[in-house]
Each structure stands twice: as structure tokens, then as C-alpha cells.
Amino acid sequence: MTVSIYAMTCGWLSMPMPFLIDGTEGVCRIPVPAYFIRHPRGTVLFDSGMSLRVQKDGAKALGEELEPFFEIFYEPNEEVSTRLESLEVDPADINYLVSSHLHFDHCGGHELIPNACHIIQQREWEAAHVPELRAANHYNPADFDHGHGRIEARGEHDIFGDGTVVCMPTYGHTPGHQSLVLQTETGPVVLCGDACYLRQSLEEMRLPAPIAVNDELAMRDSLTRLKALQSSGARLMFGHDPEFWAEVPQAPLPVA
Ligand SMILES: [Zn+2]
Q1: Helix%, strand%, coil% for the chain, nearest 5
Q2: For ligand 1, a single-atom ion, which residues have Cβ within 5 Å?
Q3: Cα of 102 to ligand 1 centre, how many Å?
Q4: pTM for the full model?
Q5: Distance from the alpha carbon of residue 194 to the mean position of ligand 1, in angstroms
Q6: Each residue of 178-237: pLDDT tens digit?
Q7: Contact in structure between 101 and 176 (CB atoms under 8 Å)
């Protein structure tokens, strides 16, 4: 049994380059990806992009602390629910909604996927509900607290029980970040999320500036495991790499 993967661009952001790789300079314009996955026994969305509040008034939605660092490029019809139309998928029919983590550009579209079961690492969910950690990690409950049924994974979680769609903990960027490892007809594919922003992050094994790292040792360990997966033949989908993204087929074409 294998799965198909489809990539969707749900807007763009520009942010300081050091937020992606420490010790660099300038500003980088990055895509905000979401992925739709079709398995013979169900459908999965990996991340949901930014909220409609961000689309309407980014400065207000991001708040005083984040707003100065980001410029938002997010037009009507770029939200995940409209992107899914290209696949003729009704957002209300999606079975599982996997969060890599709870930053605004990864879970803001959760409310547009109303009936899915939300799969998240328990550590991430708990961190988002402890006031100090919520503040330190810039979580906003308006993005993700929409009453979805929820599976709180503790480490690896095999969604369909057949090894084809498996959540892999990649802590470090946030307390409970996870990536998704998929078995496709053309081999394993890893949706890295923010555990690995850019191809350069992996090639040079470089982390973001401290502001974008919750636990440096854990993040470095996650990056090492992603590198090992790549060395063993897996294709890595980097979290926010504009050059890499230009090579990625967009839905309705499959990535794999
Ligand atoms: Zn993030």
C-alpha cells in the first residue's frame, strides 16, 4: 500500500534571513506550504497555512511582538480550503489534520478543516496551554483551538497502522515539533516542517537564530536524523525553501 502527496502554496512571508539560518544577513521571501495526502483508507492534511485573520489584517493578527519581523503576501483564494478545490477535495471530508507545530503559518487554517481529527505531539499541545511556554513560542490559540477531536501522540505515531504515513518527532524548533514520513510509489518522502527550513540548513547543518529555536540540542538531533533519512534514500521536503519550492509540482499534480 502506498500514498500520494500533493503540495499547495498557501501564501508567502518575508522574514529576516537569520530567523532561518543563524549568522546570515538580509531578508528571505518564503513559501507557506500545506500538503494533502491520499491513503487508500483516508485523507490527511499536513499543516494548514495561515488564518483568514492574517489574510485580512496581518499586522493585527500577528500582534505587536511578531509583526515587525514579517511581511505577509497572502491573497484571497490562497487559503488551504480553496487550494484543495484544485484536487476536488471538500475540506469538510478530510479525515486527519496533522500539525507539525502550532506556529501561525502552520495551523492558522485549521478552522477551515472542520471535521478532521487533529494529530499533534502531546508535548506541543501541552506547551501551547502553559502560559509561559505559549508566550515564549509565540502560539496563538485562535489559530488552533477549534474543538477538533484530537490524538495527542507521544513520539512516533503510525496513522493508518501500515507504516505508510508516520508522524516522526523532530523536537527542537518548538517543544513538540513533528515531521511526517510517507511511503510512496517512488520511495520514502519526508515532510520536514520547520525542523529543516532550507536545503542549506541540512547541507551545512545550521540552525536558525535562537529566537526560532526552543531547544538547540534537540533541534540539532532532529536535523541529524533527517540527514540520516536523506542518506538512506528518502526525499526531503524542506519547510520554507523558496529555491527548492520552485521545483516542487503543485496540486493537482502530485509530488509523489
Ligand atoms: Zn515554526
Answers
A1: 30, 30, 40
A2: 103, 194
A3: 7
A4: 0.97
A5: 5
A6: 999 999 999 999 999 999 999 999 999 999 999 999 999 999 999 999 999 999 999 999
A7: yes
